[in-house]
Amino acid sequence: TMFAVCQQPKSPVVGLGNPGMEGTRHSVGMAVLGALAARLGVADRWRGDKHVSGEVIVSEVQQTHVVLLRPRLLMNVNGVSVAKAAGKYGIRPEDILLVHDELDKPLGKIVIKHGGSARGHNGVRSCVDCLQTDAMPRLRVGIGRPTGKTPVERHVLGRFSSEEKKVLESVLVQSVDLLLSQLSQEDSQQDSQPPSSPAGGRQAVQKRKETERSSSPAENSPASQC
Fold it and tell me: What does the record give as EC number (predicted)?
């Protein structure tokens, strides 16, 4: 990330990261999902689902079933988990909201991006490869680039400093606010519009502007497995 079988809209939110490394910059997407689960009062409901290779919570925002997914695979193959969940529950890729770290934004900035390239982020690239589309919207959470001669890999796999953690607290609050706003918009859009075809939807989502707030891709790697 799943859902009970029902006719209500389903909105999946996926926190990309590395299992067992939840406190690192690269896994900030998982931290955002943890904060979202806490805000929804369901933080104790994470359950492992071997069929999607991840941990899942199903909750509700207004009339929408919200599915939270934390893949239990390494970042560069997170897309395997996301694709399994999409297949199992009949989710369209353009309805899957990915939450991930963003090197090219400073800590304190969060951005909604409506589809498009992975921009070098391994987890997003894996999702694009495995879902065979780049239509997925993303919440990009800034972590900033390393200072001095610190290698990028060491930076993203490192933990937030004590000073950064103070900023991170407000980032998590703002990220959850923005996610809930997006989910509410999706609910109203699903009520008022017929679903768009994946083929026609790709160009449309790429033309939308990024939405930025004050309050995130990473290093290159081989293509992921699907």
Answer: 3.1.1.29
